[in-house]
Amino acid sequence: MTPTSNQDIPAAIELRLGALAxxxxxxxxxxxxxxxxxxxxxxxxxxxxxxxxxxxxxxxxLARHRMVYDALGPMMQQQIHALAIMAVxxxxxxxxxxxxx
Length: 101
Description:
Layout: H1 8-17, E1 24-29, H2 38-41, E2 45-52, H3 61-72, E3 80-88, H4 90-96
Parallel strand pairs: 2-3
Antiparallel strand pairs: 1-2
C-alpha cells in the first residue's frame, strides 16, 4: 500500500504494523509540532508509536525497534521522518505495572 495523501499515512502505518499482531497500538501524529523542521520540509511526518505485541517477548529494545522498522519498510525513508517507539511485550505491562501514556 502506497499512501497518496498525508491522511493515508497513519492508516498505512497501522496496516503495516498489523504484521506484528499488536494487542495495542497507538499512533500519534506529531508532525504539526515540527513545522519548519528540515524533515517536515521534506514531507516526512513525525510520529509517536506505542505498540504492545507478544512478538516482542524475549527481544531487546533494539530488536523490537528493528521489527517495527522492518514492518514499515520503505515508509521509513519516505513518509516517516521521525518515529518515537515504545514497544513492549504484554507481560511487561503486568509484571512491572508499567504505564503506557
